[in-house]
Design a protein that fits this description.
The longest helix has 24 residues. The chain is an all-alpha fold and about 110 residues long. The chain contains five helices and no strands.
Amino acid sequence: MEAIGKARQEVGRFLSLHQFCEKVDLGAINRRMIESLIRAGAMDSLEGTRSQKFAAVEGAMEAGQRAWRDRESGQVGLFGDAMAGEAHAVPLPNVPDWTDKEKLAARKKCWGSG
């Protein structure tokens, strides 16, 4: 959670799952943690439904890891930091939203009761 706090200090409010994965050190958190945050509703303020974010986790993490590698190696794209705010523009998968019952079951799974 420290990695998330550090990224929030730098970025402010996250706008999307992709931005979250590009700014948070993915060496400090893993896919399971991100999926738990989605299930619990902790990422409801980000664009998209829980089911869309859940379906996009793998791609968002891959993009985030590429961004981290590029920053660490000193590589920047053609437009450098001008595109840094565009991470939220990545379209989310077109999947049906979870029902209220599915959301409740997912939340219970996070808390270990269910």
